[in-house]
Specification:
single chain; four-stranded antiparallel beta sheet; 4 strands; 52% helix; rod-shaped
Length: 163
């Protein structure tokens, strides 16, 4: 009985390529619970009451001398610009108590595919914690989430500039 090594090689190559094509063509669906979790991701230690609108309008209509004293105690929310990254928009909202960052809420992050969701799920809490700790937008990017990190920092800086 003759062995046909070339035929075996050809058959195994075709089978391998076919399997790889089938695996790459498989597109898993996004799970709505993961998307909702990413969009509301904030560290538990950063929750703040939502009395921002009345405080902001009362401090802005005060006289200059009382404005500085009420500014140190007022809680307000400032929304940063939407930054378009390679993978989608990033936007944050900063909660300020006086001049201190007390919370950062992510309003938009790329969540179009499962990989984007995975990146946002681990990067956003790290970025939020760093921003609260640093009390500025001068924070390090998260490895593996460079574009999301850069968008987060730019949106955070624009919110702080508006405050």
């Amino acid at each position: 009985m003759r062995t046909r090594p070339l035929r075996r090689i050809l058959l195994s190559t075709v089978a391998t390529v076919s399997g790889a094509v089938l695996l790459l063509a498989l597109k898993p669906h996004s799970h709505p619970a993961v998307v909702a979790q990413i969009q509301s991701a904030t560290p538990p230690s950063a929750s703040v009451s939502s009395s921002a609108a009345p405080s902001e309008s009362s401090s802005s209509s005060s006289s200059p001398s009382s404005s500085s004293s009420s500014k140190t105690k007022a809680t307000r929310k400032v929304t940063g610009d939407t930054v378009q990254t390679r993978f989608g928009p990033v936007q944050v909202q900063v909660t300020l108590t006086g001049t201190r960052i007390s919370a950062v809420t992510v309003l938009q992050v790329p969540t179009e595919n499962p990989r984007d969701q995975e990146i946002a799920q681990y990067a956003v809490p790290q970025l939020t914690q760093e921003a609260i700790t640093a009390q500025s937008a001068s924070i390090d990017t998260v490895s593996g989430a460079t574009y999301t990190s850069e968008g987060y920092v730019q949106s955070l800086q624009s919110a702080l500039d508006k405050a």
